[in-house]
Amino acid sequence: MSLDAEKKIAVHCRNIIKTYGTGASEVFALRGADLDVYEGELLMLVGPSGCGKTTFISIFTALLSADGGECDILGKDLNTLSSDQKVHLRAKSIGFVFQAFNLLPALTAQENVAVPLLIQGVGRKVAMQEAKLVLDSVGLGARSSALPAELSGGMQQRVAIARALVHHPKLIVCDEPTSSLDHESGHVIMKLLRDIVDNSNTTLIVVTHDDRIYEFADRMAHMDDGKIIKIETMKNQQGIIA
């Protein structure tokens, strides 16, 4: 049985168009991009620099608005949501892991992880307790009081992942999570992310140029010139998607 027959769709985008500039300076970042991402899968979005990957993920995480097309995220039609509703969707249901980690240097690992909960109005004591539990789950409980500068790159990335997990999102988007890590550290991070997907039915989208980690994907969506040009199922997975 194919994956699309077994799973619900978490991300559904059709004919997404996005342009920057106007008139003679108008540039098409997305030229009718289509993509379905299923609940509980790890999908990698790959393609050359400038092909529209960052714009695409910014649209289906409600950070940017499309100029055309439709996009449903976790059952929500983005075209019908107000700005406040999009903020609420991101805060409650979407986690982000950034390429540059984006940790606050003056805060400890535990305080960094607690930030999303504090923004939502969770009390500091509860937020810090939750942050400690998530740090424990990524193997950094013993370093919860360390500042980012006192942690290795791989450890900082695990703190960033813990921060993305702390509010129990249904969708996590990672932008080049292993690009600044050595091979061993990158595989530790991807094994952690793979385990999260397998154990919690979380949907994970990884934007990457790192062919060392392709083996961790369920499917790979290849992008070029503002469109998805091919979707392939990885050899270690069962079923045929495209």
What secondary-structure arrangement, pairings included, does this model have?
Elements: H1 3-6, E1 9-20, E2 27-38, E3 42-46, H2 53-60, E4 68-73, E5 76-77, H3 83-93, E6 94-97, H4 109-119, H5 124-137, H6 153-165, E7 171-175, H7 183-200, E8 203-207, E9 219-224, E10 227-233
Parallel strand pairs: 3-8, 3-9, 6-7, 7-8
Antiparallel strand pairs: 1-2, 1-4, 4-5, 9-10
Helix pairs in contact: 4-5, 4-6, 5-6, 6-7
Describe the overall structure:
The protein contains 7 helices and 10 strands. The protein has 242 residues and is α/β, with parallel strands linked by helices. It has a single domain, classed as P-loop containing nucleotide triphosphate hydrolases (Rossmann fold), CATH 3.40.50.300. The longest helix has 18 residues, at 183-200. It has helices at 3-6, 53-60, 83-93, 109-119, 124-137, 153-165, 183-200, and strands at residues 9-20, 27-38, 42-46, 68-73, 76-77, 94-97, 171-175, 203-207, 219-224, 227-233. The protein starts with a helix and ends in a 9-residue tail after the last strand.
Low-confidence stretches: 1-5, 237-242
* Strand elements, count: 10
Main sheet strand line-up: 6-7-8-3-9-10
CATH class: Alpha Beta
Shape: globular
